[in-house]
């Protein structure tokens, strides 16, 4: 027995407590490093009116695109969307509210949320439509806009390996937004390819320390490739 | 003759220096990687969290966990580093990237850039472009000088919503290489066979033409 054992027995248990109207922060870049089984579980549960925070919104029939099929997403904060026809249609019909957010600002909003920093100033977006209505302050002679942090009711994260204390390592560029997402959930759920015994992972190689992780589950992953490019 | 896409990439590559960390946008900027001079070591930064992007993988090397910011499968070169999106944008926003090359719809004489949104058309998002233009000191914009209908894209003031304000100081078009300073474009070089008159005619913003404007030269690729 350990109070630090973050493992749960099923995906149903992993997403226990998610309700309509909640905010969900998701790791991933395109289809790389997305918590694909946790997304599928949210679809299965049929919760609606979600606010989703993620760099992208999947593709038709995969990733966060699955949540569009039953119109489960009311609002999304993302830097780049529209890789999927269903998203485009829902956006044009005003069925989904899209808050386009510069990619670095989105990462920093999650990081700040997890780090207890309520807002920050950045030059990114000043003088553009993104800066409209936001507080402006000058630092070192340059105007900056204030951006507020984000915290999710849930954060859903895809890792590579973890020990059952919830110490997580990511694989290659499947890291992307996952470490920040992991810090910014009131409940952070991580799915990984392999769970190992504590002590098997090198402590100095941990990307997400277990303190951020509430629930952990091992899954199998399709890992769909969005743009397959090979060298002949 | 207007420059080809390959010639534009070749011209941009002349701005590279040994030891540069470089972020290349989608389109013509991506082609710059094909013209890194022999013997020069340049690290490509991909904003999804990769410093030291390598070539595309072979079928055997293909890994869904290894992509670039354009979501293409890639490899990491020897000496590469991989990190989170927050770390990646710390590099970009903190001004640590030596050169950024990106495309644009419009640039104006005050260094404003519009590159992400055409009102009335589907808006997909800015990705990392706003962070890149705000964070980098050294940016080259690549674009065609005028639209298909002959309308200048180098303007007195951008018409489209901005990506960044006052952040561009170098532009390479298919007709010319220009710098932006003190509220004007300065014509530095022209494409082979393109006259100063043609560039003047196709530049709507304030343009300063020095007495001598050298023609770019290109060696035929063998």
Automatic annotation (TrEMBL), chain A:
InterPro entries noted in UniProt = 3-oxoacid_CoA-transf_A, CoA_trans_fam_I, NagB/RpiA_transferase-like
Q: Does the keyword Amino-acid biosynthesis apply?
A: no
SMART domains registered for this protein in UniProt: CoA_trans
UniProt keywords (A-Z) are: Transferase
Keyword Cell wall biogenesis/degradation part of the UniProt annotation: no
The protein's matches in Pfam families, at most eight in alphabetical order, are given as:
CoA_trans
This entry's Gene Ontology molecular function terms read: CoA-transferase activity
* Superkingdom of this protein's organism: Bacteria
Q: Which NCBIfam families match?
A: pcaI_scoA_fam (TIGR02429)
Q: What is this protein called?
A: CoA transferase subunit A
Automatic annotation (TrEMBL), chain B:
Among SMART domains, the record links this protein to: CoA_trans
Tell me the keywords, alphabetical order.
Answer: Transferase
Give a yes or no for keyword Repeat in this entry: no
UniProt-listed Gene3D superfamilies: Glutaconate Coenzyme A-transferase
For this chain, one GO molecular function annotation is: CoA-transferase activity
Pfam families per the record?
A: CoA_trans
**Family of the protein in this entry:** Belongs to the 3-oxoacid CoA-transferase subunit B family.
**Any idea what this protein is called?**
CoA transferase subunit B
Organism lineage reads as: Bacteria, Pseudomonadati, Pseudomonadota, Gammaproteobacteria, Oceanospirillales
């Amino acid at each position: 027995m350990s109070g630090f054992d973050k493992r749960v027995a099923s995906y149903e248990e992993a997403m226990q407590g998610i309700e309509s109207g909640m905010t969900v922060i998701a790791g991933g870049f395109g289809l790389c490093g997305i918590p694909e089984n946790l997304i599928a579980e949210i679809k299965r549960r049929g919760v609606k009116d979600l606010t989703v925070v993620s760099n992208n919104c999947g593709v038709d029939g995969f990733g966060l695109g699955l949540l569009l099929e039953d119109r489960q997403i009311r609002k999304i904060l993302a830097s780049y969307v529209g890789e999927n026809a269903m998203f485009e249609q829902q956006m044009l019909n005003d069925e989904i509210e899209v808050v386009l957010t510069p990619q670095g600002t989105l990462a920093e909003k999650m990081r700040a949320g997890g780090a207890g920093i309520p807002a920050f100033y950045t030059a990114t977006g000043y003088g553009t439509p993104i800066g409209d209505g936001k507080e402006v302050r000058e630092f070192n002679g340059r105007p900056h806009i204030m951006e507020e942090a984000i915290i999710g009711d849930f954060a859903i994260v895809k890792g590579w390996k973890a020990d059952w204390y919830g110490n997580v390592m990511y694989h290659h560029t499947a890291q992307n937004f996952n470490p920040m997402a992991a810090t910014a959930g009131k409940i952070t759920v991580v799915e990984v390819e392999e769970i190992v015994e504590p002590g098997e992972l090198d402590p100095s190689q941990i990307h997400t320390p277990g303190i951020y992780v509430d629930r952990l589950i091992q899954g199998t992953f399709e890992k769909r490739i969005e743009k397959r490019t090979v060298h002949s | 003759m207007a420059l080809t896409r390959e010639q534009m990439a070749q011209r941009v590559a002349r701005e590279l220096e040994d030891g540069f960390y470089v972020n290349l946008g989608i389109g013509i900027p991506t082609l710059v990687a094909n013209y890194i001079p022999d013997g020069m070591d340049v690290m490509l930064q991909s904003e999804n969290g990769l410093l030291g992007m390598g070539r595309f993988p072979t079928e055997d090397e293909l890994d869904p966990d290894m992509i670039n910011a354009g979501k293409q499968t890639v490899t990491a070169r020897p000496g590469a580093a991989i990190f989170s999106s927050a770390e990646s944008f710390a590099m970009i926003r903190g001004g640590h990237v030596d050169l950024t090359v990106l495309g644009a719809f419009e640039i104006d004489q005050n260094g404003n850039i519009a590159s992400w949104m055409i009102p009335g058309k589907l808006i997909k998002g800015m990705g990392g472009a706003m962070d890149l233009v705000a964070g980098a000191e050294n940016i080259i914009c690549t674009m065609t000088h005028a639209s298909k209908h002959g309308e200048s894209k180098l303007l007195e003031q951008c018409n489209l919503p901005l990506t960044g304000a006052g952040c561009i100081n170098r532009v390479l078009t298919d007709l010319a290489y220009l710098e932006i300073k003190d509220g004007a474009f300065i014509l530095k070089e022209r494409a082979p066979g393109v006259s100063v008159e043609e560039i003047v005619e196709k530049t709507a913003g304030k343009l300063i033409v020095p007495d001598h404007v050298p023609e770019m030269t290109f060696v035929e690729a063998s």
